[in-house]
Write a structure and sequence with these properties.
By secondary structure, this protein is mainly alpha-helical.
Amino acid sequence: LWNSKAMALQVNLRRNIRLFAFMLLAQVALGIANIFLQLPTALRIAHLGGATLVFLLLVAISYEHYRSRLA
């Protein structure tokens, strides 16, 4: 039982790290596009929402890492 919990935490941690990497790349691309292409306001707001998601993913990754060390 303990091993299956630890494995599930590791799977969640890996998934969150992959999602974070994707979101970070999307954020950088959208930020650069905002500067050079002068995107509409809706896309600029989407960039701010993406920053919030990146921050929340970092919190989730930190929490999963903390839980995996306790298990």
